[in-house]
Design brief:
Blueprint: H1 2-20, H2 44-54, E1 58-62, H3 65-78, E2 84-86, H4 89-97, E3 114-117, E4 121-123, E5 128-132, H5 141-144, E6 147-153, E7 157-158, H6 161-172, E8 180-183, E9 188-189, E10 197-198, E11 205-211
Parallel strand pairs: 1-11, 2-3, 3-6, 4-7, 6-11
Antiparallel strand pairs: 4-5, 5-8, 9-10
Length: 218
């Protein structure tokens, strides 16, 4: 016990000495703007698809909203999806357009199996989905169902987390969301008997339907 105390005192004395006798060397400017990661020449949608899929996310690219409806109906039937729940007006409009049944009643939220939400943006480098409390889907819907379906647009793609935060600051100005959350694939845990479980703290699967809303001019 005495040796531990002595070692601790020695360290504290060195810290106190360093604080009293400050270095005369000038601090150089630190570059906090340059990228520390090697950037890829691949388009952002390709980078996101690769990184999101590598994290066990399910990615579906749609050329337009009509193709989204077609792809969603096919995958919903293939997975036997029922009890769809959506709160955001843009998603409800898409589902109504495709005559896809869903609920937006608060009483049905606890029993929903599939929650559909929009997002703030998608981070290509990490394959992450950024959501906030400012969205109509709120804090609960993204984690209630077994499946979280994200509907996003190519115009929402950014390269990294820094760009995502800048995007949110510019969008909300002085009224930033009280919650900004990063979803990077379904949650994983091996806490119970060292058995890997996917979706232990939220949805078992996360789908991103990416709709192209940027016109390509030849």
């Amino acid at each position: 016990m005495q040796s531990n105390t002595t070692s601790k005192e020695k360290i504290l004395k060195k810290i106190r000495k360093a604080l009293i006798h400050k270095s005369t060397k000038e601090m150089v400017d630190v570059d906090i703007e340059s990228e520390i990661f090697t950037t890829s020449e691949e388009p952002l949608e390709i980078q996101f698809a690769q990184n999101f899929s590598a994290l066990n996310g399910r990615f579906v690219f749609c050329e337009n909203e009509t193709e989204f409806i077609e792809n969603f109906e096919f995958i919903a039937k293939d997975n036997n999806w029922k009890n769809l729940f959506a709160l955001e007006p843009a998603i409800k409009a898409l589902l109504k357009k495709g005559k896809i049944k869903f609920s937006d009643k608060e009483a049905d939220l606890l029993t929903t199996d599939i929650g559909l939400t929009l997002c703030e943006c998608l981070v290509a480098r990490t394959g992450s989905v950024i959501i906030t409390s400012k969205q109509a889907s709120g804090r609960r819907l993204p984690v209630y169902g077994n499946f979280h379906i994200v509907v996003a647009y190519t115009s929402q793609l950014v390269y990294n987390i820094k760009d995502a935060l800048k995007y949110i600051r510019e969008k909300y100005k002085n009224q930033l969301p009280s919650m900004i959350s990063t979803i990077t694939g379904p949650s994983l845990t091996a806490d119970i008997e060292k058995t890997l479980v996917q979706g232990a703290h939220g949805p078992k699967e996360i789908f991103v339907f990416l709709i192209d809303d940027i016109a390509i001019v030849d």
